[in-house]
Write a structure and sequence with these properties.
Elements lengths: L11 E6 L6 H12 L2 E4 H14 L7 H14 E4 L4 E4 L2 E2 L7 H11 L2 H16 L4 E6 L2 H5 L5 E6 L2 H9 L1 H4 L5 H20 L12 E4 L5 H15 L3
Parallel strand pairs: 1-6, 1-7, 2-6, 7-8
Antiparallel strand pairs: 3-4, 4-5
Length: about 240
């Protein structure tokens, strides 16, 4: 049974949900830097577990192996809230967490009810350590992890924009390769469907979440808009 969210806390919490490529990590991390808050990227936790499982040649559907890895991960995790660096037994996992394979593997294990239940206390612990406020992003933050969040945001963007962001072309201004772009679109759509249709904690917009569409915003515009949104709804 998944425990309910903590009823009492001292820090402000902004829950940000949304599909892959909507810009959550890049925007939320910079917003937190400017506000002096803590950023918790829950997707990195799932990616870390999947990565460790692959490194150990464990099957991603082996509950016994995954349980052992998660328990060990919770004990040996070295997490830097300022840089979001994820360390495990002295190994910096962060560079390997950005790969497409890591994303697919994370989406695969994230539909496992046991995995979600075991990682839930860690997500809450990392968030509640914040002395002032925290932005937590993922797929089920406003509906499962922190249903009592002070502000819930559903961050999204068009498929075209999300695919371009995955390629890194919006920042570099280069002409994207059409074939590669279509492949990335297909991959994103597959992940969207998998995240939305999974039986446990699917990707859905919380009824009281504010839709934040960044399709027509660059990174700076998205950051400024989110800060304004937070200041409008929370006393910062």
């Amino acid at each position: 049974m998944i425990p309910s969210a903590p009823s009492s806390r001292t820090c402000k919490i902004v829950a940000v949900d949304g599909p892959a490529g909507s810009g959550k990590s890049s925007v939320c991390s910079e917003v937190c830097r400017q506000l002096g808050w803590t950023y918790v990227n829950t997707g990195f936790l799932y990616r870390s577990i999947a990565l460790i499982a692959r490194q150990r040649n464990q099957r991603l559907d082996d509950n016994e192996a995954l349980s052992g890895i998660i328990n060990e991960f919770c004990e040996a995790l070295q997490w830097d809230p300022k840089t979001q660096a994820v360390g495990f037994h002295g190994q910096n996992l962060s560079p390997q967490l950005y790969t497409d394979q890591a994303g697919k593997d994370a989406s695969s294990i994230a539909k496992n009810p046991l995995v979600r239940e075991l990682l839930l206390p860690l997500q809450r612990k990392l968030t509640l350590q914040s002395p002032v406020g925290a932005i937590v992003d993922g797929r089920d933050i406003g509906t499962v992890v922190f249903p009592d969040a002070d502000l819930k945001i559903f961050m999204t963007a068009s498929l075209e924009v999300r695919a371009l962001r995955r390629m890194g072309q919006l920042q570099e201004g280069q002409q994207p390769d059409p074939a590669e772009l279509e492949a990335i679109k297909t991959s994103i759509l597959q992940r969207d469907q998998q995240d939305a249709k999974r039986g446990t904690a699917p990707l859905i917009q919380a009824p009281d979440a504010i839709v934040f569409d960044t399709s027509d915003l660059d990174i700076k515009g998205s950051i400024d808009a989110m800060i304004q949104l937070i200041k409008t709804h929370i006393k910062v």
